[in-house]
Specification:
The protein is of the alpha+beta class. It has 2 domains: 1-120, no CATH class; 139-309, Immunoglobulin-like (Sandwich), CATH 2.60.40. The chain contains 5 helices and 9 strands; from the N terminus they run ααββββαββαβαββ. A hairpin with a 6-residue loop joins strand 1 (139-147) and strand 2. The protein is elongated, with a radius of gyration of 32 Å.
Length: 326
């Protein structure tokens, strides 16, 4: 204690100090204006045995107590605070404000959510797009994918929506192997999918994208494997799953789309039908949405309505009857 106090009050012996002033000097310094670690103290100010005698009780240091710049770099030397000197809970959440050490402290991680020293999360501190649904609960969505155009494809979709963040997984079987399959979330229409034997305006009576749009609505989200997920990427063939590869991704959707998904207005549609079984998308008929592509690329292969579920459903589990005609 003698060595630490000499560092805080240079030139004053411990024996000459009235006991009543010691607590004040230990916190405020000799003029009660200089914070710990300011010009009157330095690396030598706090000795290795300075803070040890009287532990700081729980709740002693309240929110905002130690402000920006209060503790200069090097003010507290290694070993200055003995084990047990600061009891659990002594420093309340928010007591040490950002910048209290006088540096940007690059690389010093913030306490994780739920840590005793972490401030409570609120709307202002939550990154945009990461807030939970109203009430703080995530929204679970599921869909059964049924075949269209006699593709033989079927599958399961599970998704979790937290605020504007959508985590979605798709498991499909029976899609044309070795070929990319554009897939989207559609919103609009009456949210119902064409039946497996529905006839459309395409070659050989195939259901074209425009035929399905009447009941499932327009493309709201492109479920690409990387990059952009807007309608402009609806037929970026190099960024969609191939064959039955499956799909898993977390993306950000607009607040409007998030609200519509919570309302059960979303439909998943997968495209790509190798109608003539050549192992590639070909034929003279052109796509009704991308004329530079063969019609087979955009013809509907599988479809299912996204509906809410009270609990999360694992991929491959029983969904809620979203496929086929709703």
């Amino acid at each position: 204690m003698r060595r630490g106090l000499r560092g805080i009050v240079p030139g004053i012996g411990v024996g000459l100090l009235p006991l009543a002033v010691l607590p004040v000097l230990a916190v405020s310094g000799p003029d009660r204006a200089t914070p710990v670690g300011a010009d009157r103290t330095g690396p030598e100010a706090t000795g290795a045995d300075t803070i040890a005698a009287d532990p700081i009780p729980p709740g002693a240091i309240g929110p905002g107590a130690i402000g920006p710049g209060a503790i200069r770099p090097g003010a507290i030397r290694p070993g200055a605070i003995r084990p047990g000197a600061i009891r659990p809970g002594a420093i309340r959440p928010g007591a040490i404000r950002p910048g209290a050490s006088g540096t940007d402290t690059v690389g010093a991680p913030a306490p994780p959510v739920g840590h005793p020293l972490a401030p409570p999360a609120d709307a202002a501190s939550t990154p945009r797009g990461r807030r939970d649904a109203p009430g703080g609960e995530p929204t679970y969505l599921v869909a059964d994918l049924g075949p269209v155009n006699r593709s033989g494809a079927s599958g399961t979709v599970t998704a979790t929506l937290r605020g504007n963040l959508l985590s979605i997984r798709i498991s499909t079987h029976g899609l044309a192997p070795g070929l990319p399959h554009p897939q989207h979330i559609h919103i609009g229409g009456n949210h119902s999918c064409p039946s497996p034997d529905a006839a459309g305006t395409g070659a050989g009576g195939q259901v074209r994208s425009g035929d399905a749009k009447k009941s499932i609505g327009a493309i709201a989200v492109s479920l690409t494997t990387t990059g952009d997920t807007g309608p402009g990427s609806s037929y970026a063939l190099d960024r969609f799953p191939v064959g039955d590869a499956g799909y898993r991704r977390t993306i950000t959707v607009s607040p409007k789309v998030a609200a519509e998904l919570r309302g059960g207005e979303g439909v998943i549609e997968q495209h790509g039908v190798d109608a003539n079984h050549t192992g590639r998308y070909d034929g003279a008929a052109r796509s009704d949405v991308q004329p530079e592509l063969p019609e087979e690329v955009s013809n509907s292969a599988a479809c299912g309505r996204l509906v809410t579920s009270p609990t999360a459903v694992p991929v491959g589990g029983a969904a809620a009857g979203g496929g086929g005609t709703a």
